[in-house]
Amino acid sequence: MTVNLVQRLSGAAVFSRRQGRPGLAVAYLAVAVIVLAAVLAPVLAPYDPNAMDLTATSRPPSFGSGHVLGTDTLGRDILSRVLWGARPPLLIASASVLLGVVIGVSLGTLAGYLGRGVDESLARLADIQLSIPGLVLALVFLSLFGSSSVNVVVIIGVESWPLYFRVVRSQVRSVRSRGYVEAARLAGLRVPKLLRRHVLPNSYAVLIVAVTLNFTSAVLAESSLSFLGIGIQPPTPDWGVMIAEGQTQLATASWIALVPGAFLVILILSSQVLADELAARHALKDLVGGGAA
User: Fold this and answer.
1) What is the tally of structural domains in the chain?
2) Could you tell me the pTM of the whole model?
3) Which residue range is the domain that position 161 belongs to?
4) What are the φ/ψ torsions at residue 77 (nearest 5 degrees)?
5) For residue 288, what is the domain's CATH number?
6) Distance between CA atoms of 109 and 165, rounded to whole angstroms?
7) Any idea what DSSP says for residue 47?
8) 188's torsion region: left (phi>0), alpha (psi -120 to 50) or beta?
9) 64-89, pLDDT tens digit by residue?
10) Rounded to an integer, what distance in angstroms lies between the CA atom of residue 254 and that of residue 30?
């Protein structure tokens, strides 16, 4: 599965380069490299990410010392921790996006198809959710229930469901009264099968754009919570944790925080470029479709 993902991203990068889009090609390759590095961290990491060497504390990046990206204040290898530290943002962001999609698509489909009281009630619930700042909600939830990975996934996923709810609700409302949907309903097609076969497929394109955009936000949210000390907890390698640990050493050992920070920025910017590209393609498709009509 991972190999297929990397092959697709690499193929898309080649296509983008041929189309004169070097920035998009770089974004594809950056995401592919980070995902592959996270998956192969047990193989690629030269040291145990939590192994301490008090005789080699705060060493700067150097090829000759055996620590290419340097060490932190406890003598732990930065490269090893960066490779392993890519896993929590990617896994938690992916799981939280999946949870948000399941909740948002389910409720959005019900609201858009049933309409009336159900639509109004769920729409108000989504509005209430959106009115609560995500960071405040996360602080309260994680303070009450603890800072486990599962709780971080739950809070980020719950915070993001209104996005998918609105997307799917809008799409379902736009197609539920079309002729082919009415014909399928009159033919006796059961509602679940009707939604799965004739209604939801019309939401896939815009839903993919929303998922890609929200993945970027989820990565940033996970790293922010870990940085604040209410997400992933030390000594587990995590980019947010590493930045927090290195913030007090910026004057003397800046690489401790800057290296994981650089990788986090690259992942977020690359994901955002891909999301913008998907959004542009979707908008172009709608424009062409509208013109043809």
Assistant:
1) 1
2) 0.82
3) 86-293
4) -70, 125
5) 1.10.3720.10
6) 8
7) S
8) left
9) 778 899 999 999 999 999 999 999 99
10) 23
